[in-house]
Amino acid sequence: MSDGELALGDTPRAKGPWFLVPEGTAATGCRSCRAVAYWVTTAAGAQMLVDCAVPGGRAPTATEAGEGVSHFATCPQAKQWKGAGKGRRGAR
Question: What is the b/e burial string over 40-49, where b = at least 16 CB atoms within 10 angstroms of the residue's CB?
Answer without folding.
Answer: beeeeeeeeb
